Amino acid sequence: MKSNSYFPLKFEDDKLIFIDQTKLPLKENYISTDDYNRIAEAIERLEIRGAPLIGIAAAYACALAFKNHNHKDDDYFNKVYNRLASTRPTAVNLFHALKEIENTYINLADENVYHVLLSIANRIFSAEENYSEKIAKNGLNIFRKKSNVLTHCNTGALAAAGFGTAFAIIKNAFEHQLINHVFVDETRPLFQGLRLTAFELEKNKIPFTVQTDSSAAVLMQEGKIDIVITGADRIALNGDSANKIGTYNLAVLCNFHNIPFYIAAPSSTIDRTIATGAEIAIEYRSSREVLFVGDHQIAKESYQCFCPAFDVTPAHLITGIITEEGVFPFPYNFLK
Ligand code: MRU
Hints:
By secondary structure, this protein is an alpha/beta fold. The protein folds into two domains: 9-133, Four Helix Bundle (Hemerythrin (Met), subunit A) (Up-down Bundle); 139-335, Translation initiation factor eif-2b, domain 2 (Rossmann fold, 3-Layer(aba) Sandwich). 36% of the residues lie in helices and 18% in strands. The strands form four sheets. Strands 6-5-4-7-10-14-15 form a seven-stranded mixed β-sheet. A three-stranded antiparallel β-sheet has the order 1-2-3, with helices on one face. A three-stranded antiparallel β-sheet has the order 8-9-13, covered by helices on one side. Helix 1 (36-44) packs antiparallel against helix 2 (51-65) and helix 4 (92-106) packs antiparallel against helix 5. The longest helix is centred in the middle third of the chain and has 26 residues, at 113-138. It is globular, with a radius of gyration of 19 Å. It starts with 8 loop residues before the first strand and ends in a 7-residue tail after the last strand. The relative contact order is 0.12. It binds 5-S-methyl-1-O-phosphono-5-thio-D-ribulose. 5-S-methyl-1-O-phosphono-5-thio-D-ribulose binds next to helix 2 and strand 9.
């Protein structure tokens, strides 16, 4: 597959350069920093977002924290670690990346902490690229005919390495003439579908339509959707999967309309320490994200809002989980 003209982040000249996803698709602004705290802020503000990408960015942030502090200092390491661990709670990729960095740091001799941690960040990045490529290939197996696909949130190059997860499957399937059209949920409240997935589909010349999240049911009722594929932020051992708020709605709708519902995610998104989705920490965000569209206020600030960023789809509603290892049907024994 040909590479994109845009990139979510790259490490160059001892700095992390990342695209500010909050400005897309209207502005393609890149920010360059060597400040780990700036990267932590970028994750909090969703300038950098998407489960695998958050993990990659956090690993580079830990390395950069030691660029001008290139020796072991446990208090300093803990401060950096805790700052990054406190950015967003749901995507487990963040914690897997931090753990890998921590394990390396603990076993390190005193010299050149920066370069050793940088090599771990690079390793995490290339592992994710490799997962994306394999997920794209494995995902071809779910298509029985040329299909219309519906997706939610953003799972492309802006959310991960390579071409992403669910998006990588969509792109590969389109290139294999297995996709007619992609229907994209706008993905309230932050519009990752409308702003980011539409941007990536346009860049990749894949035909698409964006609909409000509440229109998915009608599309299914009218027989316009053959498959739904989304990503995940954390998958429990029984297959319960946390993803962007609204994913659970889609799984219920698919069940009702007898439409296959797939989750695509790398192994870095699987949390082998939790038995079920009940143990997944769900991030709640500011009501400002509901009351404002961008900087434009659309309702009174005094209104109380319910703002979970993610929901958990129960395993039995998921037709299959696509990872770099293959396509696995319920009951997901491969996770154990
Ligand atoms: O809040 P976001 O935009 O970080 O949420 C992202 C998602 O929910 C994605 O679907 C998920 O991280 C998978 S990305 C390959």
